[in-house]
Structures are given as structure tokens and as C-alpha cells.
Amino acid sequence: MYFRRRQRFMTVGVAAVATALSLAACSSSSTTSAPSGGSTSTPAGGSTTSSAALSGTLNGSGSTFQTVYQQTAISSFKSVQPSMTVNYGAGGSGKGRTDLASGVVNFAGSDSPIPSAEVANFKGKTVLYFPVFLGPITVSYNLSGVTGLKLDATVLAEIFSGKITTWNNAAIAALNSGAKLPSTAITIAVRSDSSGTTQNFSLYLEKAAGSAWTLGSSSTIKWPSTARAGAGNPGVAQIVKSTPGAIGYVDYADAKASGLSYASIKNSSGSYVAPSPTSASAAGTGITIAPDLTFHAVDASSAGAYPITYQSWVLVYEKQPNANDAAMLKAYIGYLIGSGQSLLGGLGYAPLPSGLQQKAQAQLSMITS
Q1: How far is CA 360 from CA 211, 262, 294, in A?
Q2: What phi, psi does 229 have (nearest 5°)?
Q3: With CB atoms counted within 10 Å of each terminal CB, which end of the chain scores lower, N or C?
């Protein structure tokens, strides 16, 4: 049920964006009475201080990891700016970046920074990164009679590179003493689209598994030919749910909604940690943040940190075509990184660490027309 609802939401969101493509950059300014580009500001811990009413449309696309939060925030934001319309189509981080570079959306959701191969697409324009939350990538599995599965980076690397092919493999058994592991064949479930979830999952394996992982880190990976691919996190979740013996990487919100079982993963301090908003928050402690607010939270060293924790950003151009677009983006992004943070815990995400939240809020002033 939830999977079908998520599919319908993504389809409606993409359709809404598609119908607005020719208007994405200008329709908002033609239907509004806007304040100047610098009239909206966001204090630490808040959303916006401006009481000015805004009117118009913002279109966004990208990360499926953000879908549940975007859906919830868009609905709640109506109480702040009732005359604004925000659309979000979830097609994967790569799709969002492509849409932003092509000028068909006002903002993109992305779970990874712009890859070097895509930089030229933005034609020298400055892109601002606004982090919105952290969350765990679960290693979800479908294995009747097996609960409390434990895995480490090396075993995961060998599973997802096709070297371990059955569940009763000795390397898995060594981590799960007493478990009755069947001889069932392993089916790996992966993303079919350009995905920030893939980027961060493969980055974890690259960092934590060392030489055991040879497939690199990217938003698209050349998986073994036996892999089954699904669109978005919901697509991978559905493959795992419907395939005995399957294992896949799925964001926590979708794994929970789909009723999947997921493994505890050994972190760099030697602890087996289950994915949760709390363990994702622990991974956000002590992260190194670049001046442009990019960072990664995988393979964190804290004892309570879930090691496959990732992050998501809203990407926007620093220079907007008009003052109203700038004001609307400040208002909506200000809500996502301000008052909207209170929505995250109930959705299975971890809010931004306070220091990072303050840096993101301070950066709102850089959106100008």
C-alpha cells in the first residue's frame, strides 16, 4: 500500500514539474506581488522572520531519499505561505541535478555533491548547497527465519560485487554465530537510476572495505549481471520485499514503510549498530564540513554511529532571475532547515546538527536576484 502511494506521489510530483517546465523560471514572477530579494531571513532555529505574503510556484526534482520529507514539508508550509505552490518530482539525485542545470526546476534534491563530470553542465553558475537532514541507508534483506543479521563492510563488499552468492557462506556465518542460515541464493537489489543513495552506499564500501571493494564510488555502478535493479528507493524496497533471498540498500524511511528486515552493521569502532534516526544523528557528530557545506557522514567513528549514514541537500543557483523567485526560495528552504526540522524524527530522518543548521541558515542571504 505504502509503496503504491509513494509511486503515485512521485508520478504526480513529476507530472506537476513536467507541466510547469516552460514556466519554471518565470511563472513565479509573473503571478506574484513580491518583496525584494533580501526581504526574507532565517534565524537559528526558526523558519522565516518575514511576514510578507508570497505568491507563485517553485518546482523541484531529484532525490527519492527526500520524497517523504518534501511531501510532508510542502503540505505543512502551506500554513506559512498559503499562496505559494511547491512541486517536487522524485526521479533520483542525478535527475534533479540535470533538471537544475537545464533550467527546468528552481531547486534540486541531491544526496551527493555535483560530480566533476557534471560541473560543466552548470555553465559556470554558482550552486549553493543547503543540507536538509541525515538518514541511514539500511541493508535490507528477505530471509525467512533469520532475524538480527549482522554484517560488516568486507562481507557486504563481497555480496554486492557478486563474490558471495549464498546465504550460508562461511563469511556470513562467522558474523552470525548460532543463526540458521539457509543455502538460498543471494539476489542483490540495486538502483536503476542515477542515485545519491548508490553514491553514498558505494562510498561507504570504498572507505570501509578497502581492497575488498573494487567497483568504485559513483551515482551509477556497473553491478554484477545477476543484480536486479529498481527505480528509486521504493523500487529497491519492492524487489527485496518480493524476492526470497534478496538483499538491497534502501533508505530507512522506505525500509520501515515496506516492513523490511535490516541488518546491524559493524562500524569503525567495532560496534554492530542498527539503523535509526538516533544512530544517524550520532554519525553527524564531528563531521568535517567544507566551506560550501558539503560533507559526508559515512563510516563515522563514534561508537554509537550507524556507519552507512548519508545526507541530502537542496541545490539552488546563487543568482535567481528575479526578486520573487529569490524570496520564495529563501522562504521554502528556510522552512526546510528551520521549523520543518521538527517533522523529521517522525519520518525516520535525523535533523541537522545545530552547528550545521546555523551555517545553512546563514547562507540563505546568498540567494539573490
Answers
A1: 36, 32, 11
A2: -115, 140
A3: N
What's 24's DSSP letter?
A: T
Are the CB atoms for 321 and 252 separated by under 8 Å?
no
DSSP structure string for 285-336: TT----TTS----TT--STT--SSEEEEEEEEESB-SSHHHHHHHHHHHHHH
Amino acid at 276: S
Q: Can you give the pLDDT of all 369 residues of the chain as single tens digits? A: 333 334 433 443 444 444 343 333 333 433 333 333 333 333 333 444 345 899 999 999 999 999 999 999 999 999 999 999 999 999 999 999 999 999 999 999 999 999 999 999 999 999 999 999 999 999 999 999 999 999 999 999 999 999 999 999 999 999 999 999 999 999 999 999 999 999 999 999 999 999 999 999 999 999 999 999 999 999 999 999 999 999 999 999 999 999 999 999 999 999 999 999 999 999 998 789 999 999 999 998 888 999 999 999 999 999 999 999 999 999 999 999 999 999 999 999 999 999 999 999 999 999 999
Start-to-end C-alpha separation, the chain: 43
Q: What is the dihedral of CA 328, 135, 76, 338, to 10 degrees?
A: -50
One-letter amino acid at 33 equals: S
What lies within 8 Å, CB to CB, of 93 at 6+ separation is: 62, 63, 65, 108, 109, 110, 111, 112, 194, 195, 196, 197, 199, 219
Q: Are 113 and 338 in contact (CB under 8 A)?
A: no
Q: Which three cell numbers stand for residue 77?
A: 508550509
Q: In angstroms, what CA-CA distances link 2 with 42, 234, 256?
A: 34, 9, 10
CB 64 within 8 A of CB 92: yes
Residue spans of beta strands (DSSP E) within 111-235: 127-141, 150-151, 187-191, 228-230
Contact 345, 133 (CB under 8 A): no
DSSP state of 266: E
What's the pTM value of the predicted model, to 2 decimals? 0.82
